[in-house]
Amino acid sequence: MGDALLALVEALEHERSLDAPDRLRERIEALDRLDALAPAEDEGALARRARAIRQRLEAANALQFEAIRAAIRRGGGRDALGLADDDEACRAGDAYDWRDELVAGVLPFGEPGEAAALAPEMVFYQPTPARHVFDLLDRLALDADDVLVDLGSGLGHVPLLTAIRTPARGIGIEIEPAYVAVARACAQALQLANAQFVHGDARATDFAVGSVFYLYTPFTGSVLRRVLDALRHEALCRAFRVCGFGPCTGVLAAEPWLAGEDAPMHGRVAIFRTRC
Ligand SMILES: C[S@@+](CC[C@H](N)C(=O)[O-])C[C@H]1O[C@@H](n2cnc3c(N)ncnc32)[C@H](O)[C@@H]1O
Predict the structure, then answer these.
(1) Which residues are the signal sequence here (predicted)?
(2) Which residue of 99, 133, 137, 175 sits with most ligand 1 atoms within 8 Å of its CB, as the best mutation to test the pocket?
């Protein structure tokens, strides 16, 4: 461990190009490596050098996050939060990576107040990994007439990223008021009029609004059934898309009124279209 930390500290002390604004990914990954090797409570000389590098890299990240926020406020979020194509971008599964740290750094999420206990069949907050949100938004190719409704939106990053990266409106429906307050504050801080948050139970949603409904398994059993029945009813009069991530995807795939839009991709967000 000590040898590996020494090698990393020496490499990072010399690699000043890491401070350049466009090296955000490398900085985030270097910070993760430092975290893994340098115990926070260690007061030794090597640990102090590691802490100095950490402060240097975090300061560079903070500047970059603020520059991206400023671009979002000017309406240039799509390019500012643009991610270089890479092979890993669509990696299946629910693990998090540097893109989640990018989103957490850019979106000024405050700490939510304490969340109330959820009723049975309602699923606790866990964000969709950011790479899947980016991948989904690219595949949906939303335009200004689209409205993406995230049923069970948590801290709101799916509607927020929709408003940042596309011309569409993003609406979040969330039962936990503390999460709604944080998401609204974030939209306001970034001047995102196209990201809106409703406090309420998804079963009471106005399903007439929305060209895309997104569910990261927010609920199961009879709650999910009620929401899907309401969507099926809505599909009698108009077409829309329903997207699923996590265990609810299998339930969506079995709905006779929905058809998969593309070949099933295990561990990625599935997109379904209402059958005419
Ligand atoms: C797995 S998280 C998904 C968060 C978000 N959609 C995302 O993908 O990042 C599920 C969220 O659904 C919320 N939730 C659970 N039951 C709900 C209900 N009946 N109506 C609205 N929100 C609900 C939870 O509070 C939680 O924030």
Answers:
(1) none
(2) 175
Distance 264 CA to ligand 1 centre (A): 24
DSSP states of 48-75 as a string?
A: HHHHHHHHHHHHHHHHHHHHHHHHHHTT
What tokens were used for 49?
A: 């050098």
| Average pLDDT of the residues of the chain | 92
Query: How many angstroms separate the alpha carbon of residue 219 from the centre of ligand 1?
Result: 7
State the pLDDT at residue 156: 97
The Cα diameter of the chain in Å comes to 69
Strand ranges, E, within the chain: 147-151, 169-174, 195-199, 212-216, 241-245, 258-260, 270-274
> Which CATH class name applies to 87-274?
alpha beta
Parts of the chain belonging to CATH 3.40.50.150: 87-274
Q: Residue 91 — left, alpha, or beta (φ > 0 → left; ψ -120 to 50 → alpha)? A: beta
Residues 75-132 pLDDT 10s:
998 888 876 555 566 778 889 999 999 999 999 877 787 788 889 999 999 999 999 9
Indicate the DSSP class of residue 85. -
Alpha carbon nearest to ligand 1 atom 5, residue? 153
CA of residue 34 relative to chain centroid, distance: 25
Going from the Cα of 180 to the center of ligand 1, the distance in angstroms, rounded, reads: 11
Ligand 1 centre distance from Cα of residue 152 (Å): 3
Start-end of H helices in 196-235: 221-234
Alpha-carbon distances, residue 34 vs 21, 24, 44, 144, 210 (angstroms): 20, 15, 15, 43, 44
pLDDT of amino acid 223: 97
Residues 136-162: what's their mean pLDDT?
A: 97
